Amino acid sequence: MTARFSLEGQVAVVTGASRGLGFDMARAIAESGARVYMTARGVAQLEEAAARLRADGLDVRACPFDLSDKDACVAALAAVGKDEGRLDILVNNAGINAWEPLAQATTATWDKVMATNVTATYLLAREAARLMVPRGYGRIVNVGSALAVKGRENIAAYVSSKHGLAGMTRALAAELGPHGITCNMLAPGYFVTEINTTILARPGYEQGVSRRIPLRRWGQPEEIGGVAAFMVSRASSYMNGHILMVDGGLTETLVLPVDTVGERQ
Ligand SMILES: NC(=O)c1ccc[n+]([C@@H]2O[C@H](COP(=O)([O-])OP(=O)(O)OC[C@H]3O[C@@H](n4cnc5c(N)ncnc54)[C@H](OP(=O)(O)O)[C@@H]3O)[C@@H](O)[C@H]2O)c1
């Protein structure tokens, strides 16, 4: 590990780390040398995930709480601050989605998605800033989505939440930059995780999406942690307010459903 990628001696919080993308981010950040506080609601799954990483010699701790509980968000970071006296890295990864045509959508769904994806991110970032500003250093990564910059049907609350996170990322980059703290967004495309259980169950869906991606496949969770570890390291020191797509080229290319190879205008 070269010094610029090393996280030795640093303290990190990764939300939604009990499975999926957050688990691999926690693993990669711990592999780079940080002590990682892993959060999620489900205690058993979180403890098991932390035990798996500890069995590999990594320094991780399970820190269960519900992100939709505002007081719990504040208390969790206060506890880290009290125990460690510092926080170097915050990865706001946890998120939920909800597929609902607008005309059938409920206010409860909107509130739940916003509480988990947006309000919790804001509160954790605020509490993190209180620990980072006095030390003049920090890395905040918000996990967005290709849907932080694009729209889609039947998922308005989620798309709105991720666009909101993109704005928050830029606002925090502007405000915290003078204190030596960067804030960036890691935006995944399609990955095979539990959040996509519903759409993956639809016949032909996975293959249909793959045909639109230049790499012609979905991402695996193991392909995300290295990107997160880079974004929270000193190696990314001049990257601030950026949205980094990790989507196999989906968002930046136009792959048409018909074969256009050799097409002439
Ligand atoms: N997978 C994709 O294709 C994809 C694409 C674009 C963006 N993303 C984004 O990537 C992030 C991670 O997604 P994923 O695919 O890894 O999802 P996942 O497999 O469903 O994992 C979500 C994680 O968040 C935790 N979580 C959910 N609600 C929570 C709450 N209220 N309080 C505390 N923890 C909570 C879950 O644990 P508990 O349920 O136990 O709380 C779990 O650890 C999300 O922000 C998602 O929007 C994913």
Note the main attributes of this structure:
Rossmann fold, 265 residues, 8 helices, binds NADP nicotinamide-adenine-dinucleotide phosphate, 7 strands, alpha/beta, 7-stranded parallel beta sheet
In short:
The protein is α/β, with parallel strands linked by helices and about 260 residues long.
Structure overview:
The chain contains eight helices and seven strands, in the order βαβαβαβαβαβαααβ. It has one domain: NAD(P)-binding Rossmann-like Domain (Rossmann fold), CATH 3.40.50.720. Helix 1 (20-31) packs across helix 8, helix 3 (70-84) runs parallel beside helix 4 (107-132) and helix 4 (107-132) packs parallel to helix 5 (156-176). Strand 2, helix 2 and strand 3 (60-62) form a beta-alpha-beta unit. Helices cover 40% and strands 12% of the residues. Bound molecules: NADP nicotinamide-adenine-dinucleotide phosphate (NAP). The site of NADP nicotinamide-adenine-dinucleotide phosphate (NAP) has 27 residues, from helix 1.
